[in-house]
Amino acid sequence: MLLKAILFDLDGVITDTAAYHFKAWSWLAEKYQLQLEPDVETRLKGISRLDSLKIILQESNVPVGCYAEEKMEKMCIEKNDYYKKLISMMTPQDILPGIEPFLKEARRADIRIGLASASQNGSYILDKIGLRSCFDTIVDPSLLIKGKPDPEIFIKCAHQLGVPLENCVGIEDAAAGVEAINAAGILSVGIGSDIELKAAQIILPSTQQLKLNIF
Ligand code: B16
Ligand code: MG
């Protein structure tokens, strides 16, 4: 393929915010006396804030419709306020191994770089870890109609970069994200377990293996 753009997921690919997300959800669950088992953490990866809350409510056997939209929105704001305090401590040391050299290699090869993260804190996190200037574009997830596994976010990212889908690669750590990349018709790279990410066209055990010559 002729590679012209790389579309990155954030959490689990550029940096690991999953533990902070889960800590914040656990705090909220305790506050509202909801049940939150550790195995739910994986299911929240790549899933929007509101959809994550809906999964947690479902897991706690809260009947659908029991919580009004306004109440769920308030809970999402509370979770995010707590989460923002946790991520305010992030530094460039939180960049996952191999990401900085890979971004430099891509830049030298004149490849465009985009962020396709479900997180509304993406820009803030890139600033905190010192990578904001490496990105040519960031998709605003609040403007999307559907979240991952819908392909919208990756299609939008490629459009914002002005690169055809067939010249893009998408990198993800979550099953919902890999599904979204595949549905967009973009070459998918999964970072992590080959059982969880079996739908990915290329699977790498960690970000350390990211090199341009694998495409
Ligand atoms: P926020 P990604 C996702 O990031 C996280 O994996 C997911 O757990 C989180 O709920 C979602 O962002 C929304 O994040 O609450 O910061 O808007 O993997 O798409 O980079
Ligand atoms: Mg992710």
From TrEMBL:
Its cofactor is Mg(2+). PANTHER family: FRUCTOSE-1-PHOSPHATE PHOSPHATASE (PTHR43481), GLYCEROL-1-PHOSPHATE PHOSPHOHYDROLASE 1-RELATED (PTHR43481:SF4). The active site is at residues 9, 11. Substrate binds at residues 9-11, 25, 44-49, 52, 79, 117-121, 148. The record marks 117, 148 as: Important for catalytic activity and assists the phosphoryl transfer reaction to Asp8 by balancing charge and orienting the reacting groups. The keyword Isomerase applies. One of its GO terms (biological process) is carbohydrate metabolic process. This is Bifunctional beta-phosphoglucomutase / glucose-1-phosphate phosphodismutase. The gene is mdxM. It comes from Brochothrix thermosphacta (Microbacterium thermosphactum). Its EC number is 2.7.1.41, 5.4.2.6. Belongs to the HAD-like hydrolase superfamily. CbbY/CbbZ/Gph/YieH family. It holds the Pfam family Hydrolase. Binds 2 magnesium ions per subunit. Mg(2+) binds at residues 9, 11, 172-173. InterPro entries: B-phosphoglucomutase_hydrolase (IPR010976), Beta-PGM (IPR010972), HAD-like_sf (IPR036412), HAD-like_SPP (IPR051806), HAD-SF_hydro_IA (IPR006439), HAD_sf (IPR023214), PGP-like_dom2 (IPR023198). NCBIfam families: bPGM, HAD-SF-IA-v3, PGMB-YQAB-SF. Keywords: Isomerase, Magnesium, Metal-binding, Transferase. GO terms for molecular function: beta-phosphoglucomutase activity; glucose-1-phosphate phosphodismutase activity; magnesium ion binding; sugar-phosphatase activity.
